[in-house]
Structures
1.
Amino acid sequence: MGDERLLVVGGGLAGARAAEGARQAGHTGPITIVAGEDAMPYIRPPLSKEFLTGAAERDVVDVFPADWYADERVEVLRGVRATGLDPAAHRLRLADGRTLDYGRLLLATGASARRWRAPEGELAGVHVLRTFADSEALRSALAVGGRRMVAIGAGWIGLEATAAARGYADEVTVIAPEAVPLAAAVGSAVGEVFAELHRANGVDLRMSTGVAGIRGEGGRVTGVELDTGETVPADLVLVGIGAVPETGLAEAAGLEVRGGIVTDASFRTSADDVYAVGDVASVYHPVLQSHLRVEHWANAENAGRAAGRSLAGEGVEYAEIPYFYTDQYDLGMEYSGYGTLADGIDPVFRGDRAAREFLAFWQREGRVVAGMNVNVWDVNDQVQQLIRSGARIDPARLADASVPLERLVAEASA
Ligand SMILES: Cc1cc2nc3c(=O)[nH]c(=O)nc-3n(C[C@H](O)[C@H](O)[C@H](O)COP(=O)(O)OP(=O)(O)OC[C@H]3O[C@@H](n4cnc5c(N)ncnc54)[C@H](O)[C@@H]3O)c2cc1C
């Protein structure tokens, strides 16, 4: 196995970490990353935060320094997409006509921004935010200052870009059909904290509101028409309506795909020697005993590395607790847990919600299944320990900030 060629399709964070994981596991044969974008692997979180606000430059997004690839003998084919996979022949076809044979192959093709329907979505001034180029374009547009932006969608991307836009003194209106932002991800009680944060920063939040269409003149956006008939004027529109997993190659090759490419806990797909990881993969989680597709940085980082080890022949059973974070204005948040188990449960709060310095815990049958810390730092390991312990914990003690978290962890782990 050690001498075979490993092929990684997709040069995002998951793909780059997989190459690293394979080398760490002792794979000595060639490793090639087919990177569809004309860029070395980069991370995306800064694209809606410090790069977009102008607080950081391009170098913050590199996964590895340029010489890492030569040192580790990892070849990166930039700007060429894979167009066909033949698992029986162990062969990958590229858009430029080349074919590459492999011993094992990893699909790390990620996801793409869901776009607004054409021709409205193609008007000048209408943006999506997924790639470095998207972020650069939006940053230049926002940096003019004093512009009117409408964000369609109140998810993580829409809200983070909104916070960045307010930093440039742009006026922002957010339009979304749900009653409370982020309610689907973290529930209404926490979603309200984000709603208040944005309102306090001068954002016009129009919730429970649908969009009838994006309006333009002479090929340029002029506004967003609401389902009430009102049109909100706009110089810029950010379409933040989610991402679509890039499953096309896998589907055409006959792999099992259900929302994402289906894998076991070792990232093996339904085709021999083909693996999948990152935003595109729906991976069996041994704790949940069901498949989970996670669109977050930590999953690409940790599962990516684990998939590389698996690809190199190491026995891997991936069972990490999902984790994600956000930064908006002066609010930083980390969340660990099983969102599917926390769904519909009212959290227990610990700390000062009005001051936006608190923890929230979601419990099922007394066991912590998810936890979040907002502007409280160095506690997420403890949150994860509480979840991992599976112990029943008195919610009154979880809520009582005078009971140290360390003590709760010690009791839960005893
Ligand atoms: C703006 C932004 C901000 C984010 N902020 C956060 C955050 O704060 N916290 C958090 O937890 N997560 C965040 N995320 C999510 C996180 O970035 C993703 O979960 C992560 O990028 C997934 O990595 P990936 O490698 O699986 O996929 P991707 O990063 O999507 O990389 C996949 C790569 O594969 C390429 N590709 C696709 N098809 C082909 C093909 N056929 N041939 C060759 N190449 C192909 C794509 O072009 C892409 O370069 C953010 C995402 C975005 C877009």
2.
Amino acid sequence: MTKIAIIGGGAAGLMASIIAAREGADVTLYEHNQSVGKKILASGNGRCNIINTTATADDYFGTNADFATYALKQLPFTSFVTFCQTIGLLLDIKEDGRCYPLSNEAKSVLNALNSAAKNSGVKILTDTKVTALNKAKEGFIVHTDHEKYTYNKILIATGSEAAPQLGATDDGYRFATAFGHKIIPTYPSLVQLHLNSKIHAKMAGVKTFAEVTLSINGKISEKIQGDILFASYGISGLAILDISQKASLALLNKQNVILNINLLPRFTPDALKEILHKLITSVPDHTLETVLGGLVPAKTVPYLCEAVVINPAKALSMLTPKEISKLLGLIANWQFEVTGTHGFKHAEVSGGGVATIDVDDTTMESKLVKGLYFAGEVLDIVGRRGGYNFNFAWASGMIAGRQMSKK
Ligand SMILES: Cc1cc2nc3c(=O)[nH]c(=O)nc-3n(C[C@H](O)[C@H](O)[C@H](O)COP(=O)(O)OP(=O)(O)OC[C@H]3O[C@@H](n4cnc5c(N)ncnc54)[C@H](O)[C@@H]3O)c2cc1C
């Protein structure tokens, strides 16, 4: 019987352990937290956006995002549904491709995985931190704080550094490096951004639907519409999380990162101009502050006026054509420099990780060390928001589990 150690009881490790144990392997799963699957519990605001029905490699980033293609094809959505049925988990499929457990509670996902792992015979060692991994004459030695054990094969499924409060560590990178693997520099992703401005903190709490354009070194990199939320440290909101991967990677590469915010994306510049001119006719004596407060969040008005140097108390009819043009330009194009991210503590995921060039995408086995496997976020693959990160964790974990159980 093949003796397997799986390091990390997250999505990838749990999936791999269930598959390998069902194939007849003797599986031990190490988790340093008191319980497995802490990120699963915290995911999707406690609902767990468990997978996306439409995932392709285009939904992932990495030095070679195509690495994900084989795994995603091995676990198409229909096969995932079948797997879920075998662990007693039913899904709620949304129109946009996102899926949640039917219960709408992440806990049900973890309970199903945990029970399936235990019932398949996986030995789950919680509160057990793996401190080092070594190659033995035959197989590998897994070191914990107290003991060491020998296994035929090992899987590093320790995830990334994102959300250390949930138990995330960089141990996987350390272990991989010791085996000769290269680590692509890591960076927080799906994360809030820090801004170089004196006003974002004053607008803290302002949430609005906007269009955000991300420019890197002067070139437009991405344009996205969604909610933004000003905060004491900078800016958050789903639109910001969605562009954060590119922004964070650019910051890592010391590039200049600029956000242009259109506060009223539903109107073309001409339509907006017409709206303002109609207001000038209908309420000429209203102050700019009053009128702007009907178009954009009131808390932003003083800062918009300050930026274009117009007194907010000015009557609408007194605005010069130049002032109108400056104001409309700013509403459609409010520029902020991004100076950093809110860090790994607040990030959902991490970009970078174990270089995929040295890992076989069809088996998840190291090309450098036979019997050593990787799965999940520890690899240099990171997904978009929308269930894609779990998707890759399940798919790569499944392949690793299947391959490792082979004699
Ligand atoms: C708040 C939050 C919400 C999220 N929501 C979603 C979502 O809705 N949909 C989605 O697709 N993705 C979501 N993600 C991302 C998703 O959780 C991860 O991509 C996924 O968990 C990665 O799985 P993994 O198994 O590779 O790593 P992890 O789930 O991080 O598992 C790694 C495990 O290894 C353990 N470990 C680390 N070092 C050691 C060691 N030395 N010894 C023993 N154990 C160790 C860790 O404690 C952890 O349990 C979210 C992430 C966060 C933080």
